[in-house]
Every structure is written in structure tokens, then in C-alpha cells.
Amino acid sequence: MRRLVFLMAVGLLAVVAANTAAIAQSAPRHSAGPVCRESGPLPNQIRCFLDAAEAEGDVGQCDGAYDFAVRFNCISKFAENSGDPVACERIPIRNNRLLLMRDSCVSGVAAATRAPQLCEQVQLDVVRDSCFLIQVLDLEANPQLCENITKAAVREICSENQ
């Protein structure tokens, strides 16, 4: 009887160990988290998380930041540097401030990759207009993009300064 109880205990421990290993492998890794959170002022934390994300090739490293400004700046810079607007979708749209951050992220990727078609994904008019304006005035894209600008005064500036 003792032997049976012993074997059952060993079997139970094996199952627990296997489940623990599976959970650890499936959990998101935020190896940079503790180190970066202690790296000083917010710009240092952003740089630390961004470096970790770029080294891993995983924007998920940015999620280790507790401060939303650090997290979202890390996501935006990662998206711009990688040219991946999909990374911007990690910024949840729960309010206008977060929508502004996501739109700014997409606009930044559009500028970094010289991809004016990304401006069409921007939801806020003011950011979308700015996105197209940057494409035409700063990046010398097709002047016809000015027609996509909704605010008349900005469209006029775009058209006159090409």
C-alpha cells in the first residue's frame, strides 16, 4: 500500500511539473521588465524596452512597462523602426487619448516607410491630414495626396507648398 501511495505521489508531482513547464512556456516573456523599470527616467525606460523588443524582434517586450507612456512610446518606435503598422494595434482604443496614440503610431510608420496609403488607416481627421501633409511636403510624395486632406486650410497649405 505504501508503494502505491508513493507511486501516486510521484505521478502527481510529474503532472504538476509538466503543467508548470507548459504554463511557463506559454506565458508572455517580459525579460526586460524588471531591469528596464529600474533604468531611471522614462526616456531611459523607453530606450531599454525598445532595445529589448528590437533584440527579440518582438513588440511584446514593450508590454513589460507599467507606465503607459513608456509602453506606448516603445510600441510606436518599434513599429516605426520595423516598418510594421500592425504593431500599432497593440495600443488599445479605449478612449480618444489612446486613439490619438494609435493614429500617431500609424502615421509615424507611414512617414518612416514613405507609405502614404497607411494614412488612410488613421481615424482622427487631424492626424490623417497631418499624415498626408508630411507625405507631400516632407517626403515629396505625389501632390495629388493633398486631395485626401479633409480640413480646407490644411489642404490649401499642402497644395500651395509643394
What would you call the structural class?
mainly alpha
How many angstroms separate the termini? 89 Å
Q: Could you estimate the helical fraction of the residues in percent?
A: 55-70%
Helix count from the secondary structure assignment: 7
3D shape: elongated
Total beta-strand segments: 0
Number of domains: 2
H-E string: HHHHHHH
Mean pLDDT: 84
Calculate Rg over CA atoms. Answer: 23 Å
Largest sheet: none
* Low-pLDDT stretches: 1-30
Strand content: under 5%
Report on the structure:
The protein has 162 residues and is mainly α. It folds into two domains: 30-91, no CATH class; 94-162, no CATH class. 62% of the residues lie in helices and 0% in strands. α3 (42-56) crosses α4, α4 (68-82) packs parallel to α5 and α5 (96-113) runs parallel beside α6. The longest helix is centred in the first third of the chain and has 25 residues, at 2-26. The chain is elongated. The relative contact order is 0.07. Mean pLDDT is 84; it is low at 1-30.
Give me some keywords for this one.
162 residues; 7 helices
Helix and strand topology:
Layout: H1 2-26, H2 33-37, H3 42-56, H4 68-82, H5 96-113, H6 125-138, H7 152-160
Short description:
The chain has 162 residues and is mainly α.
